[in-house]
Input
Amino acid sequence: MSPTHTIALDRLNDAIRQVVRGFGSSADEVEAVAGNLIEANLTGHDSHGIGMLPRYADACLEGGLKPNTHVRTVHDGGALLRLDGDAGFGQVIGREAMAMAIERTRLHGSCIVALGNSHHLGRIGAWAEQAAAAGLVSMHFVNVISRPIVAPHGGADARFGTNPFCAGLPLTGRPPVILDFATSMIAQGKTRVAMNKGVLVEPGCLIDDQGRATQEPRYTVVPPFGALLTFGGHKGFGLALMCELLGGALAAGMTEHQGDSGKRRVLNGMLSVLLDPVKLGRHEAFEAEALAFLDWVKASPARDGFDPVRVAGEPERASRAYRTAHGVPVDGTTWQEILDAAQKLGVDPVAVSRAAGLG
Output
Protein backbone atom coordinates (compact mmCIF):
# COMPACT_ATOMS: atom_id res chain seq x y z
CA MET A 1 0.00 0.00 0.00
CA SER A 2 1.32 3.44 -0.94
CA PRO A 3 2.30 5.66 2.05
CA THR A 4 0.20 8.78 2.54
CA HIS A 5 1.43 12.35 3.03
CA THR A 6 -0.73 14.80 4.95
CA ILE A 7 -0.01 18.27 3.61
CA ALA A 8 -1.05 21.47 5.38
CA LEU A 9 -3.47 23.52 3.31
CA ASP A 10 -1.27 26.61 3.01
CA ARG A 11 1.67 24.51 1.84
CA LEU A 12 -0.47 22.58 -0.62
CA ASN A 13 -1.74 25.86 -2.04
CA ASP A 14 1.83 27.04 -2.65
CA ALA A 15 2.98 23.74 -4.16
CA ILE A 16 0.07 23.25 -6.53
CA ARG A 17 0.19 26.84 -7.76
CA GLN A 18 3.81 26.25 -8.70
CA VAL A 19 2.78 23.26 -10.81
CA VAL A 20 -0.08 25.08 -12.53
CA ARG A 21 2.21 27.97 -13.48
CA GLY A 22 4.03 25.42 -15.61
CA PHE A 23 1.10 25.44 -18.06
CA GLY A 24 1.95 29.06 -18.86
CA SER A 25 -1.33 30.11 -17.26
CA SER A 26 -2.13 33.69 -16.32
CA ALA A 27 -2.20 34.55 -12.61
CA ASP A 28 -6.01 34.43 -12.60
CA GLU A 29 -6.03 31.02 -14.29
CA VAL A 30 -3.50 29.66 -11.80
CA GLU A 31 -5.80 30.72 -8.96
CA ALA A 32 -8.89 29.27 -10.65
CA VAL A 33 -7.35 25.89 -11.51
CA ALA A 34 -5.36 25.33 -8.33
CA GLY A 35 -8.17 26.59 -6.11
CA ASN A 36 -10.78 24.38 -7.76
CA LEU A 37 -8.62 21.24 -7.63
CA ILE A 38 -7.65 21.76 -3.99
CA GLU A 39 -11.28 22.48 -3.09
CA ALA A 40 -12.20 19.07 -4.53
CA ASN A 41 -9.65 17.46 -2.21
CA LEU A 42 -10.94 19.45 0.73
CA THR A 43 -14.50 18.23 0.11
CA GLY A 44 -13.25 14.64 0.10
CA HIS A 45 -13.45 14.15 -3.68
CA ASP A 46 -9.80 13.28 -4.29
CA SER A 47 -10.85 11.81 -7.63
CA HIS A 48 -11.41 15.35 -8.95
CA GLY A 49 -8.58 17.05 -7.10
CA ILE A 50 -4.86 17.60 -7.57
CA GLY A 51 -4.41 14.03 -8.79
CA MET A 52 -5.86 15.22 -12.12
CA LEU A 53 -2.78 17.37 -12.81
CA PRO A 54 -0.72 14.58 -14.42
CA ARG A 55 -3.48 13.96 -16.94
CA TYR A 56 -3.89 17.70 -17.54
CA ALA A 57 -0.14 17.97 -18.20
CA ASP A 58 -0.25 15.17 -20.78
CA ALA A 59 -3.35 16.67 -22.41
CA CYS A 60 -1.69 20.08 -22.64
CA LEU A 61 1.49 18.68 -24.15
CA GLU A 62 -0.62 16.76 -26.69
CA GLY A 63 -2.50 19.94 -27.60
CA GLY A 64 -5.83 18.75 -26.22
CA LEU A 65 -5.93 21.33 -23.40
CA LYS A 66 -5.47 25.02 -24.20
CA PRO A 67 -4.35 27.27 -21.32
CA ASN A 68 -5.49 30.91 -21.13
CA THR A 69 -8.66 30.19 -23.09
CA HIS A 70 -12.04 31.72 -22.26
CA VAL A 71 -15.63 30.76 -22.93
CA ARG A 72 -17.07 31.92 -26.24
CA THR A 73 -20.71 32.71 -27.02
CA VAL A 74 -21.96 30.80 -30.05
CA HIS A 75 -25.66 31.72 -29.74
CA ASP A 76 -27.33 34.34 -27.56
CA GLY A 77 -31.05 33.91 -27.15
CA GLY A 78 -31.38 35.98 -24.00
CA ALA A 79 -32.38 33.33 -21.50
CA LEU A 80 -30.95 30.64 -23.78
CA LEU A 81 -27.18 30.53 -24.32
CA ARG A 82 -24.97 28.24 -26.36
CA LEU A 83 -21.32 28.46 -25.31
CA ASP A 84 -18.06 26.88 -26.46
CA GLY A 85 -15.09 26.22 -24.17
CA ASP A 86 -12.52 25.75 -26.97
CA ALA A 87 -10.79 23.03 -24.86
CA GLY A 88 -9.81 25.55 -22.20
CA PHE A 89 -9.35 24.68 -18.54
CA GLY A 90 -12.80 23.64 -17.28
CA GLN A 91 -12.09 25.40 -14.00
CA VAL A 92 -12.10 28.67 -15.93
CA ILE A 93 -14.71 27.80 -18.57
CA GLY A 94 -17.18 26.46 -16.00
CA ARG A 95 -16.88 29.53 -13.77
CA GLU A 96 -17.31 31.92 -16.71
CA ALA A 97 -20.28 29.99 -18.09
CA MET A 98 -22.02 30.02 -14.70
CA ALA A 99 -21.31 33.74 -14.27
CA MET A 100 -23.08 34.40 -17.57
CA ALA A 101 -25.96 32.12 -16.59
CA ILE A 102 -26.35 33.84 -13.22
CA GLU A 103 -26.50 37.26 -14.85
CA ARG A 104 -29.17 36.13 -17.33
CA THR A 105 -31.20 34.36 -14.63
CA ARG A 106 -31.31 37.50 -12.53
CA LEU A 107 -32.59 39.35 -15.58
CA HIS A 108 -35.07 36.81 -16.94
CA GLY A 109 -35.85 34.60 -13.93
CA SER A 110 -34.38 31.55 -15.62
CA CYS A 111 -31.64 30.58 -18.05
CA ILE A 112 -30.65 27.48 -20.00
CA VAL A 113 -26.97 27.16 -20.91
CA ALA A 114 -25.66 24.67 -23.46
CA LEU A 115 -21.90 24.45 -22.95
CA GLY A 116 -19.71 22.34 -25.23
CA ASN A 117 -16.06 21.56 -25.82
CA SER A 118 -14.78 22.43 -22.35
CA HIS A 119 -11.80 20.58 -21.01
CA HIS A 120 -12.50 18.65 -17.79
CA LEU A 121 -15.03 20.65 -15.74
CA GLY A 122 -13.87 19.01 -12.53
CA ARG A 123 -16.27 18.64 -9.62
CA ILE A 124 -19.63 19.69 -11.06
CA GLY A 125 -20.85 20.56 -7.57
CA ALA A 126 -18.63 23.65 -7.75
CA TRP A 127 -20.90 25.12 -10.43
CA ALA A 128 -24.07 24.36 -8.48
CA GLU A 129 -22.42 26.01 -5.46
CA GLN A 130 -21.64 29.09 -7.55
CA ALA A 131 -25.29 29.34 -8.60
CA ALA A 132 -26.54 28.68 -5.06
CA ALA A 133 -24.29 31.42 -3.67
CA ALA A 134 -26.18 33.77 -6.01
CA GLY A 135 -29.50 32.49 -4.58
CA LEU A 136 -30.33 30.38 -7.63
CA VAL A 137 -31.50 26.81 -8.13
CA SER A 138 -29.58 24.84 -10.77
CA MET A 139 -29.49 21.47 -12.52
CA HIS A 140 -26.62 20.14 -14.63
CA PHE A 141 -26.43 17.21 -17.08
CA VAL A 142 -22.85 16.41 -18.14
CA ASN A 143 -21.27 14.05 -20.66
CA VAL A 144 -17.63 12.99 -20.97
CA ILE A 145 -15.63 12.65 -24.19
CA SER A 146 -12.58 10.53 -23.39
CA ARG A 147 -11.78 6.84 -23.36
CA PRO A 148 -15.13 5.09 -22.65
CA ILE A 149 -15.09 3.83 -19.08
CA VAL A 150 -18.67 2.78 -18.18
CA ALA A 151 -20.65 -0.22 -19.46
CA PRO A 152 -24.36 0.07 -20.33
CA HIS A 153 -26.66 -1.96 -18.10
CA GLY A 154 -26.22 -5.58 -19.16
CA GLY A 155 -23.28 -4.75 -21.44
CA ALA A 156 -19.85 -6.37 -21.15
CA ASP A 157 -17.63 -3.44 -22.20
CA ALA A 158 -17.33 0.33 -21.79
CA ARG A 159 -19.41 2.56 -24.08
CA PHE A 160 -19.56 6.00 -22.40
CA GLY A 161 -18.15 8.11 -19.56
CA THR A 162 -19.11 8.62 -15.93
CA ASN A 163 -21.64 11.30 -17.04
CA PRO A 164 -22.37 13.21 -13.82
CA PHE A 165 -25.65 14.79 -12.74
CA CYS A 166 -25.81 17.66 -10.30
CA ALA A 167 -28.48 19.87 -8.71
CA GLY A 168 -28.20 22.69 -6.19
CA LEU A 169 -30.73 24.48 -4.03
CA PRO A 170 -30.02 27.61 -1.91
CA LEU A 171 -31.57 28.15 1.52
CA THR A 172 -31.57 31.40 3.46
CA GLY A 173 -29.54 31.11 6.65
CA ARG A 174 -28.42 27.55 5.90
CA PRO A 175 -25.85 25.96 3.61
CA PRO A 176 -27.23 24.93 0.22
CA VAL A 177 -28.29 21.41 -0.70
CA ILE A 178 -25.82 20.23 -3.36
CA LEU A 179 -26.40 16.84 -5.00
CA ASP A 180 -23.47 15.82 -7.22
CA PHE A 181 -22.75 12.30 -8.40
CA ALA A 182 -21.38 10.26 -11.27
CA THR A 183 -23.90 7.94 -12.89
CA SER A 184 -21.35 5.15 -12.54
CA MET A 185 -21.12 3.28 -9.24
CA ILE A 186 -18.01 5.31 -8.44
CA ALA A 187 -16.15 8.06 -10.29
CA GLN A 188 -13.35 6.90 -12.58
CA GLY A 189 -10.89 9.00 -10.58
CA LYS A 190 -11.72 6.99 -7.48
CA THR A 191 -10.39 3.86 -9.19
CA ARG A 192 -7.17 5.77 -9.97
CA VAL A 193 -6.92 6.78 -6.32
CA ALA A 194 -7.59 3.19 -5.20
CA MET A 195 -4.94 1.80 -7.56
CA ASN A 196 -2.39 4.38 -6.38
CA LYS A 197 -3.14 3.47 -2.77
CA GLY A 198 -2.95 -0.24 -3.54
CA VAL A 199 -6.47 -1.04 -2.31
CA LEU A 200 -9.49 -2.80 -3.83
CA VAL A 201 -12.78 -1.11 -4.68
CA GLU A 202 -16.10 -2.23 -3.23
CA PRO A 203 -17.85 -5.23 -4.85
CA GLY A 204 -20.35 -4.50 -7.60
CA CYS A 205 -18.52 -1.50 -9.10
CA LEU A 206 -16.37 -3.03 -11.84
CA ILE A 207 -16.05 -5.66 -14.52
CA ASP A 208 -12.79 -6.83 -16.06
CA ASP A 209 -11.83 -7.04 -19.74
CA GLN A 210 -13.89 -10.25 -20.05
CA GLY A 211 -17.02 -8.72 -18.53
CA ARG A 212 -16.54 -10.54 -15.22
CA ALA A 213 -17.04 -8.94 -11.80
CA THR A 214 -13.81 -7.69 -10.21
CA GLN A 215 -12.63 -5.47 -7.38
CA GLU A 216 -9.28 -4.66 -9.01
CA PRO A 217 -9.19 -0.92 -9.83
CA ARG A 218 -6.49 -1.43 -12.49
CA TYR A 219 -9.15 -2.45 -15.03
CA THR A 220 -10.19 1.19 -15.48
CA VAL A 221 -6.66 2.63 -15.25
CA VAL A 222 -4.29 0.46 -17.32
CA PRO A 223 -4.93 -2.05 -20.15
CA PRO A 224 -6.48 -4.47 -20.68
CA PHE A 225 -9.47 -2.32 -19.78
CA GLY A 226 -12.70 -3.42 -18.19
CA ALA A 227 -15.48 -1.03 -17.20
CA LEU A 228 -17.32 0.64 -14.37
CA LEU A 229 -20.97 -0.26 -13.84
CA THR A 230 -23.80 2.24 -13.57
CA PHE A 231 -25.37 2.78 -10.15
CA GLY A 232 -28.77 1.24 -9.59
CA GLY A 233 -28.63 -0.98 -12.67
CA HIS A 234 -30.97 0.24 -15.40
CA LYS A 235 -31.89 3.40 -13.47
CA GLY A 236 -28.35 4.76 -13.37
CA PHE A 237 -27.92 3.68 -16.98
CA GLY A 238 -31.04 5.63 -17.93
CA LEU A 239 -29.74 8.78 -16.24
CA ALA A 240 -26.30 8.32 -17.85
CA LEU A 241 -28.06 8.03 -21.20
CA MET A 242 -29.91 11.31 -20.64
CA CYS A 243 -26.69 13.05 -19.57
CA GLU A 244 -25.08 11.93 -22.83
CA LEU A 245 -28.05 13.03 -24.91
CA LEU A 246 -28.64 16.35 -23.13
CA GLY A 247 -25.10 17.33 -22.11
CA GLY A 248 -23.54 15.76 -25.20
CA ALA A 249 -25.82 15.64 -28.23
CA LEU A 250 -27.93 18.71 -27.36
CA ALA A 251 -25.55 21.02 -25.49
CA ALA A 252 -22.20 20.12 -27.04
CA GLY A 253 -23.08 18.49 -30.35
CA MET A 254 -20.62 15.79 -29.36
CA THR A 255 -21.28 12.31 -27.96
CA GLU A 256 -19.08 9.32 -27.17
CA HIS A 257 -19.31 6.85 -30.05
CA GLN A 258 -15.78 6.53 -31.43
CA GLY A 259 -14.10 4.38 -28.77
CA ASP A 260 -10.62 5.01 -27.39
CA SER A 261 -8.77 7.78 -29.25
CA GLY A 262 -5.64 7.28 -27.15
CA LYS A 263 -5.70 10.97 -26.20
CA ARG A 264 -5.35 12.14 -22.63
CA ARG A 265 -7.69 15.11 -22.95
CA VAL A 266 -11.09 15.00 -21.25
CA LEU A 267 -13.84 17.07 -22.87
CA ASN A 268 -17.18 17.83 -21.25
CA GLY A 269 -20.53 19.05 -22.50
CA MET A 270 -22.96 20.42 -19.93
CA LEU A 271 -26.60 21.43 -20.15
CA SER A 272 -27.42 23.69 -17.19
CA VAL A 273 -30.82 24.99 -16.13
CA LEU A 274 -30.88 27.87 -13.64
CA LEU A 275 -33.89 29.56 -12.08
CA ASP A 276 -34.52 32.28 -9.52
CA PRO A 277 -36.93 30.99 -6.85
CA VAL A 278 -37.78 34.57 -5.85
CA LYS A 279 -39.22 35.28 -9.29
CA LEU A 280 -41.54 32.28 -9.03
CA GLY A 281 -43.53 34.44 -6.57
CA ARG A 282 -43.67 31.93 -3.71
CA HIS A 283 -40.16 32.15 -2.29
CA GLU A 284 -41.16 32.23 1.38
CA ALA A 285 -43.48 29.25 0.98
CA PHE A 286 -40.83 27.38 -0.97
CA GLU A 287 -38.19 27.89 1.72
CA ALA A 288 -40.59 27.07 4.56
CA GLU A 289 -41.57 23.79 2.92
CA ALA A 290 -37.99 22.92 1.97
CA LEU A 291 -36.73 23.48 5.51
CA ALA A 292 -39.66 21.59 7.03
CA PHE A 293 -38.98 18.63 4.78
CA LEU A 294 -35.23 18.60 5.43
CA ASP A 295 -35.77 18.78 9.20
CA TRP A 296 -38.34 15.97 8.98
CA VAL A 297 -35.99 13.74 6.99
CA LYS A 298 -33.00 14.36 9.23
CA ALA A 299 -35.05 13.53 12.34
CA SER A 300 -35.23 9.89 11.25
CA PRO A 301 -33.35 7.79 13.84
CA ALA A 302 -30.17 6.18 12.55
CA ARG A 303 -30.27 2.44 11.85
CA ASP A 304 -27.73 0.14 13.42
CA GLY A 305 -24.40 0.53 11.67
CA PHE A 306 -25.26 3.93 10.17
CA ASP A 307 -24.34 7.50 11.07
CA PRO A 308 -27.10 10.06 11.66
CA VAL A 309 -29.01 11.00 8.51
CA ARG A 310 -27.24 13.62 6.39
CA VAL A 311 -28.45 15.36 3.26
CA ALA A 312 -26.51 16.17 0.09
CA GLY A 313 -23.69 18.61 0.70
CA GLU A 314 -23.21 17.86 4.40
CA PRO A 315 -20.48 15.20 3.98
CA GLU A 316 -18.49 17.58 1.78
CA ARG A 317 -18.76 20.40 4.32
CA ALA A 318 -17.62 18.11 7.13
CA SER A 319 -14.64 16.94 5.07
CA ARG A 320 -13.76 20.54 4.14
CA ALA A 321 -13.71 21.60 7.78
CA TYR A 322 -11.59 18.64 8.88
CA ARG A 323 -9.04 18.79 6.08
CA THR A 324 -8.73 22.56 6.32
CA ALA A 325 -7.77 22.16 9.95
CA HIS A 326 -5.71 18.97 9.78
CA GLY A 327 -4.26 18.89 6.25
CA VAL A 328 -5.00 17.13 2.98
CA PRO A 329 -4.00 13.45 2.59
CA VAL A 330 -2.23 12.60 -0.67
CA ASP A 331 -0.99 9.07 -1.31
CA GLY A 332 2.67 8.73 -2.23
CA THR A 333 2.03 7.40 -5.74
CA THR A 334 -0.25 10.32 -6.64
CA TRP A 335 2.25 12.80 -5.21
CA GLN A 336 5.06 11.31 -7.30
CA GLU A 337 2.86 11.51 -10.40
CA ILE A 338 2.29 15.20 -9.67
CA LEU A 339 6.04 15.76 -9.33
CA ASP A 340 6.62 13.94 -12.63
CA ALA A 341 3.98 16.14 -14.26
CA ALA A 342 5.69 19.24 -12.86
CA GLN A 343 8.94 18.17 -14.48
CA LYS A 344 7.19 17.65 -17.83
CA LEU A 345 5.90 21.22 -17.55
CA GLY A 346 9.36 22.60 -16.81
CA VAL A 347 8.74 23.11 -13.09
CA ASP A 348 11.37 21.98 -10.59
CA PRO A 349 9.85 19.01 -8.71
CA VAL A 350 12.25 19.51 -5.80
CA ALA A 351 10.92 23.05 -5.34
CA VAL A 352 7.34 21.72 -5.44
CA SER A 353 8.10 19.14 -2.74
CA ARG A 354 9.78 21.76 -0.60
CA ALA A 355 6.81 24.06 -0.95
CA ALA A 356 4.61 21.19 0.26
CA GLY A 357 6.88 20.60 3.25
CA LEU A 358 8.00 17.23 1.91
CA GLY A 359 11.48 18.08 0.65
The longest strand covers residues 110-119. The chain has two domains: 4-196+231-293+304-355, 197-229. The chain is about 40% helix and 20% strand. The domain at 4-196+231-293+304-355 is CATH 3.30.1370.60 (Ribosomal Protein S8; Chain: A, domain 1).
